[in-house]
Amino acid sequence: MSRERVREDAAERGIEVDFVERPDAGSLEEAAGLLGISPAQIVKSLVLKRADSTFLFALIPGDRQIAWPKLRSVVGVNKLQLPSADAALEATGYARGTITPLGSTTAWPVYADERIAGRIAMGAGEPALSAFVDAAELLHGLDAVIADISD
After folding, report:
1. pLDDT band at residue 24 using 50, 70 and 90 as cut-offs
2. Domains, in order of start, for the chain
3. Is the pTM of this model over 0.70?
4. Alpha-carbon torsion 50, 104, 132, 109, what sign?
């Protein structure tokens, strides 16, 4: 199960994770309401493709969007793109909507927005499941590059 991959990887990185099952949500706002948190406390895990066909994760607060010029500058590239759903699945082992860097089939570099803090919820590798983690533990455990990468 994907949940076990997430749990095992988190444990190896010293990250405590709590899983919360929830009904399917039609939007980030609905998911936040179901979890009893604000949209900013849900962190979107986006997998992005570089021009050389390698990938990276961008972690963005739910109430914000990627600032492409800022992220490209931090990564040091001229081009980044969202891959197809099939390419994202192949790169991470997770379907869109469940993607997390924890337990990814490849440990791609992680870039996290500087506003991510406190107790957050994120994808847990399975539909209708959220992983709650401490943001500082997560970012440290993933050796994330922390920068202003959102608007």
Report:
1. confident
2. 2-147 (3.90.960.10)
3. yes
4. negative
